[in-house]
TrEMBL record:
Disordered: region residues: 31-66
UniProt name for this protein: Secreted protein
Signal sequence annotation: 1-35
Lineage: Bacteria, Pseudomonadati, Pseudomonadota, Gammaproteobacteria, Alteromonadales
Composition skew (Basic and acidic residues), residue ranges: 45-66
The entry's keywords: Signal
Length: 66
């Protein structure tokens, strides 16, 4: 039996096309995901934690006077 060289190259071509199209699809999807990702900003976020207000300062003053 004689092997045909054209069959082997055809198989390699089909494999390359399948892998290339899959890689292109992955690149497209990841590019869209990167575009949809929210961008980081340098704006300070409002803090909902501890705030030293006037009534808190007056309470601290009563503790210091004792």
């Amino acid at each position: 039996m004689k092997k045909q060289a054209s069959d082997m190259s055809r198989r390699q071509l089909l494999k390359a096309l399948a892998i290339g199209s899959a890689a292109g699809a992955v690149a497209t999807v990841s590019g869209q995901a990167m575009a949809a990702a929210p961008q980081a900003t340098n704006e300070p976020k409002p803090q909902d934690g501890y705030r030293e207000t006037e009534h808190v300062r007056s309470y601290y003053d009563t503790l210091r006077n004792k």
